[in-house]
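Researcher: I'd like a structural prediction for the single chain below. Treat it as a standalone chain; there are no partners to consider.
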Amino acid sequence: MLDNCNKPEWPRASLRNGHTGKVTLRFTIAPDGRLLKQEVLQSTGDPALDEAAMKGLSACRFIPGSINGKPVQSQAMMQYVWTLE
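Model: Treating it as a single chain, here is the predicted structure.
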């Protein structure tokens, strides 16, 4: 589904404060691979981490779904886990 995507940048305040968590995003992909809309289904509990995940997803290009070989608008979900190593 993902064609080109980099890891989102960790918000400095969240990193400094040791915030971690898992965010679940639902998003809609246009037939041309652009992100049309997205929403947080499950939050990390840190709005900055959720926003960073959404911002990172916005920079991605996607391979759209298809019906009979023709690209169509589709929906997908993704989880991003923020962990300190």
